[in-house]
Design a protein that fits this description.
The protein is α/β, with parallel strands linked by helices. The protein has 3 domains: 5-32 and 102-177, Translation factors (Elongation Factor Tu (Ef-tu), domain 3), CATH 2.40.30.10; 36-98, no CATH class; 189-347, Rossmann fold (3-Layer(aba) Sandwich). The chain contains 13 helices and 13 strands. It has helices spanning 10-14, 36-47, 53-60, 69-78, 84-98, 156-164, 199-211, 239-248, 261-264, 274-279, 284-288, 292-295, 322-335; strands at 18-31, 104-110, 122-127, 130-135, 145-150, 170-177, 189-195, 216-217, 220-221, 224-230, 252-258, 314-321, 342-347. Strands 4-3-6-1-2-5 form a 6-stranded antiparallel sheet. Strands 11-10-7-12-13 form a 5-stranded parallel sheet, sandwiched between helices. Strands 8-9 form a two-stranded antiparallel sheet. Helix 2 (36-47) runs antiparallel to helix 3 and helix 2 (36-47) runs antiparallel to helix 5 (84-98). The longest helix is centred in the first third of the chain and has 15 residues, at 84-98. The protein starts with 9 loop residues before the first helix and ends with a strand. Bound molecules: flavin-adenine dinucleotide (FAD). Flavin-adenine dinucleotide is lined by residues 7-8, 122, 132-135, 147-150, 152, 155-158, 197, 200, 321, 345, 347-348.
Length: 348
């Protein structure tokens, strides 16, 4: 499936009308945290009792926040068979150890003279001469524009944003643009599917839906599902906020899924990819006649949610990096969500 090309081009976004050239950063925050200590402790736990006490002692010393991964590799090679899972866990922990910094940043930007946009749209933010498109993560009912940005290693703009962006800085904002927007309210339930910061435009849509009472049509309440995937728990943007929203609204179901978190903590949530996780929450009838590539995931769900999904009666909004979003939208169609009710946007 082809992701709409206009959504992958920074150049195109730069041609958007000027919303303002004097927007001011009101607030910058970081989500996620440095988990190096946790990782080191977990590595020591995994090795304890396997006859590697000397190694454990070394990583446990308060000053020895320094794991020698090469040595660890050779140590595992010397052991006899059966280490596949241990090896996978340690490789994942190494990846997290290497990436000690927080990966998510939120910024609120005040735009002089107001602005208008539709939930799901994006604008181009230009900071220190580098422009990039970002989805607006806040509802249009709010006074400031909020963004949620993932740090890309060596990325031109994100390196500056994570290093320098501060309250009071001036940025240029162009737009809004994009046709990844909500359908008119109907009796359909809604499923929002995202990986990482792909949740930004979905957050705007979800908040707006509840603020405007669009979750109720003709006296009937619709179910809203959010399936949000990331590698680690702290890479799930706004996870506390979505949990609170689910507490407030019986018809909002938050289903976070983390592929590696169980290697580090006692995570008991979903661990499969977003599109595989969705399959577990299908209504009985919908789950009986699934294609071979999907049926293996129709397993027991990790979360205790009473509601179930009927694909034919669903509208789907999917967002994330291009390769991932194609898979999400493709699975929705394969499950029977009508083509005209599958909206998606890819981050190039
Ligand atoms: C419509 C639209 C909306 C977007 N909204 C958001 C948003 O809300 N939040 C957000 O964080 N990003 C969003 N992006 C992506 C954003 O525009 C930038 O591409 C991203 O922040 C990287 O910019 P950079 O200058 O740091 O990296 P660059 O120097 O431009 O790129 C470095 C390399 O990283 C790759 N790359 C780009 N984005 C990612 C990514 N997310 N993950 C992994 N690799 C990547 C690029 O393909 C390139 O190879 C959106 C993109 C589009 C097209």
């Amino acid at each position: 499936m082809k992701v709409p090309p206009q959504h992958s081009q920074h150049e195109r976004a730069e041609e958007l009308p000027l919303m303002t050239d004097s927007a001011t950063v009101a607030d910058v925050g970081h989500m996620g945290h440095n988990r190096t200590e946790e990782v080191v402790e977990r590595v020591a736990d995994l090795l304890r009792g396997r006859g590697h006490d000397e190694w454990v002692e070394r990583v446990e010393r308060p000053t020895a926040n320094d794991v020698d991964w090469d040595e660890l590799d050779s140590l595992l090679e010397d052991e006899e068979g059966g280490h596949e899972r241990l090896y996978t866990m340690l490789s994942s922990l190494k990846a997290r150890y290497d990436r000690a910094y927080p990966t998510l940043l939120t910024a609120r930007i005040d735009v002089e003279n107001g602005f208008g946009f539709t939930p799901g749209q994006y604008v181009t933010v230009r900071y220190r001469r580098t422009p990039r498109p970002y989805s607006v993560a806040s509802s249009p009912n709010k006074d400031a524009l909020e963004f949620c940005v993932r740090r890309v290693p060596q990325g031109r703009l994100t390196t500056k944003l994570f290093g320098d962006l501060s309250t009071g800085d001036e940025v240029t904002v162009r737009g809004p643009n994009g046709d990844f927007v909500l359908e008119e309210p109907s009796g359909r339930d809604m499923a929002f599917l995202a990986t990482g910061t792909g949740v930004a435009p979905l957050r705007s849509m979800i908040r707006y839906t509840f603020e405007e009472g669009r979750d109720e049509v003709g006296g009937d309440r619709r179910d809203l599902w959010l399936f949000l995937g990331a590698t680690w728990k702290d890479d799930l943007p706004y996870r506390e906020e979505f949990r609170e929203l689910a507490d407030e609204h019986d018809n909002f179901h938050f289903v976070p899924t983390c592929s590696r978190e169980e290697y580090l903590t006692d995570w008991e949530g979903e661990t499969d990819y977003v599109q595989q996780t969705l399959v577990k929450y299908l209504a009985g009838d919908a789950a009986t006649d699934l294609p071979d590539e999907i049926i293996e995931f129709a397993d027991d769900p990790a979360y205790d949610i009473d509601a179930r999904i009927v694909p034919e009666e669903l509208e789907v909004y999917a967002c994330g990096v291009n390769a991932m979003v194609s898979r999400l939208a493709g699975t929705a169609r394969t499950l029977g969500v009508p083509n005209e009710h599958v909206q998606y946007e890819g981050y190039g």
